[in-house]
Amino acid sequence: MKVIELKKVSKKYVLGRPFYALKDINLCVEKGEFLSILGPSGSGKSTLLHIMGLLDTPSSGEVIFKGRDALKMSEDERAEIRSKEIGFVFQFFYLSPFLTAKENVMLPMMFAGEVNEERAEELLKKVGLGDKMDNKPYQLSGGERQRVAIARALANEPSLILADEPTGNLDSKTGKDILKLFKEIWREGNTIVFVTHDKELSKAAERKVHLLDGRIVG
User: Fold this and answer.
1) How far is CA 141 from the centre of its chain?
2) For residue range 27-55, what is the model confidence (pLDDT) as tens digits?
3) What region does 161 belong to: left with phi over 0, alpha with psi -120 to 50, or beta?
4) Distance (Å, whole) CA 208 – CA 196
5) In which element (H, E) is residue 199 found?
6) Domains of the chain in sequence order
7) What is the Cα–Cα distance from 4 to 21, expressed in whole angstroms?
8) Is the pTM of this model over 0.70?
9) Is residue 215 within 8 Å of residue 51, measured between CB atoms?
10) For residue 205, with 0-12 CB atoms within 10 Å meaning exposed, 13-18 middle and 19 or more buried, which class applies?
11) Cα angle, residue 216 at apex, residues 17 and 158 outer, rounded to 5°
């Protein structure tokens, strides 16, 4: 089953002259895949991930999410998919500093209108933070904050997990631990796409795509 498919997707900006962040991207992600998108800074990785996450729209092309044309949806429909179907993990965590770890995990549930405190607790135990549920982000290490972010991404049992440089703000050992956690989550049947500039980290994925100057080159 195809979770998301991009067909001839381009993203053009006009900064004095036309500039393509992405050009003619064709990419399909099947259910249960673990895909890394590898490329240097400025290659278009984050732009591609934002389009896959329905956070941004392409200048041309098609974005098909579970058989539906995302570009023909209303903004409310896309927001509902982002809330219920897509889990996001970012380099800088983006946790609410005023909420506990458990409350941060419950945030997507609140937005979706289906709060399940027991599930939030189970997810924090899954990522190894069963004893830190009531801690606020400032009381957690970088690796622990990223684990909270991963638990939050899983909150609504999404069809797709998107991670943007998820180890980029961590030391190498902690980064490897986070990748190990992603692999465990993938083996449970989740679909994961992560972007990185690190060739070694990209090897953790089942399939790799190389992006250069806005184009898939391998």
Assistant:
1) 21
2) 999 999 999 999 998 899 999 999 999 99
3) beta
4) 11
5) helix 199-202
6) 34-60+76-216 (3.40.50.300)
7) 20
8) yes
9) no
10) buried
11) 105
